[in-house]
Each structure stands twice: as structure tokens, then as C-alpha cells.
């Protein structure tokens, strides 16, 4: 769980701080008629640095597991304006000419650095490539392919599960190259301003790093074949924020986008609720209810390892959304897979 600081607007308005970290992964919500304590793997309070979130959330281990051939996913979840994009990517105002301060870089850039360091130190032959797409109004669009974004079909096959047809995958071998791909894709993402957030993401974005490694033996035995290759993935999911239209003041197209976002988050929550049940009591998991759950099917219930960073606001004004995020995250914590 990550609790963001109160914003200037909230402080000026006189909002009360209703969320407090108790240490040891416990978070306490205290407000009129609400008094609840939740337990998680880790809680990062308003003062936690980006570095502390990277080290304390298990993100470094996730990168190492992806290199070992596992399918790893990290997603940021929470209401609009709760700090998801900042946690994953750092400040949005960065560009090629004006990069963000190193201390503010998010989980993504820190993971890229860690991945490239690991690939150098392991001496194994790593081939890295990246794909980046967004789900906007239930349409999948490639953020890396040149030209205006067009909708791509989502297919299913027995061997690959759900996959996006004709998706562009770009190879990279340096930090500059992958950060440039991230910036290029992020600038093409749909964002809008509304009452709660000046840069509200209007789409879910998925950046996937494909890691193919062929272990190279220093002294191969005569007649021994090449070592088998391992294929891992590291997927970063920046979910659009859940929002109440009356709070954001959205109307027209913004309101349609909000309905589409909320529907897909509801489908995701439904899948997580069913996956959290004991194995014997599980019924059919409805991954096909939305494009988001289809694309995350392998991460949620397959043989993947998934880290969920739930971002919340400490403001009394956001109490109901904060409680809803904490309940959602508590259910997600009970999901166990066998990777």
C-alpha cells in the first residue's frame, strides 16, 4: 500500500488525514463511523521515497525472477489522482530535454536499471525487447507503432493463451533506449484533466519487457548442445483510476471513458474475488468479461508472480474510495498461484 501526501488543495480545503500507517504492514483508517485496520506485505507512508518503495515492495526480486524465466507483473491500482502513475513512472513532466531528478524515478526506470545490471553481471546471453499498449474504451492500441493509433485484435490460442495480434515488439540493449520507448509511448497515451486530477490516465497501459536468455557455458563439454533458452516477461500495468463521475465532474466523452474504465476495473475485481476463494470452492473465472482481464489472465491466475501496489489518498474527502481500494487489495492478497 502506498499513501500519498495530502495535496495543497486538500490542505487548503481543510481535509482531515484519516489514514495512518501503524508500522509492520498495518494501516489504520479512522473517521466518523469508520474505524478499521488492514494488514499488508508493506505500507509506504507519505514520506517514503521512490527508492524505499522499490526496495521494500519486492520489485528487485521480481526483476530477478523474470530473468529466471518467470512471468512477472506489477500493477498500480487505486482511485484517480492517488499516485499510481507517479509510483510507476515518476513525475509526468519529464522529456528528453528535461529528465526527472534520479531520486524521483519510479518503479519502471529503477527496474530497467536493475535488469540491465543483472544481465551484465550474469554473463548470460540476454535478448531484451519491449511492447507497449493501452486499452482505451475497450479497444487495444499499440503505443509504439508509428502513425495514428489503430485498434488491434485480441486472439486466443491453446499454446499462447490470450495475445494481441500484430503488436510491435522493439529490441533494446541500453537504459536510454528503453526509457525513450517509455516516454514515446506515454506521450501517446490518452489523458484528460478533471476535478480530481490534471493528468488523469483515461486508459489502462501495459508495458511488457520480454527477456530471452540463453545460458552460455564457459567450458562446454565436448559434444554438449547449447543450453536451453529461458523466456521470462516483466509486465508493468498502469491502471486508469476508478472514479465517481459526480466527484470528477466528468460529462460527455469523459463520462463515457469513466464508465468504460469502471466496467473493466469491476471485471478485474470480480476475477480477483473468485481467485481469492479456496481452490476447491472456485467456480469459473470470467476472464473474458473485459479486454483487461483477458490480457492479465496469466498474471492473475496462471503461473505468474504478481505485485500489486495499491495507492490511496489520506484525505477524509476520499474516504469511501480509499476503503474500497483497501478491501480490493485485501482480496488480492489472498490470491495464491503456483508459479
TrEMBL record:
> What family does the database annotate?
Belongs to the TRAFAC class myosin-kinesin ATPase superfamily. Kinesin family.
Question: What SUPFAM superfamilies does UniProt report for this protein, alphabetically?
Answer: P-loop containing nucleoside triphosphate hydrolases
| Name of the protein in question | Kinesin-like protein
Q: Which residues form the Kinesin motor domain?
A: 1-335
Q: Which PANTHER family match?
A: CHROMOSOME-ASSOCIATED KINESIN KIF4A-RELATED, KINESIN-LIKE PROTEIN
Matches recorded under InterPro entries: Kinesin-like_fam (IPR027640), Kinesin_motor_CS (IPR019821), Kinesin_motor_dom (IPR001752), Kinesin_motor_dom_sf (IPR036961), P-loop_NTPase (IPR027417)
* CDD domains assigned to the protein according to its UniProt record, in alphabetical order: KISc
Tell me the superkingdom of the source.
Answer: Eukaryota
Its main localization is cytoplasm
Q: Which Pfam families match?
A: Kinesin
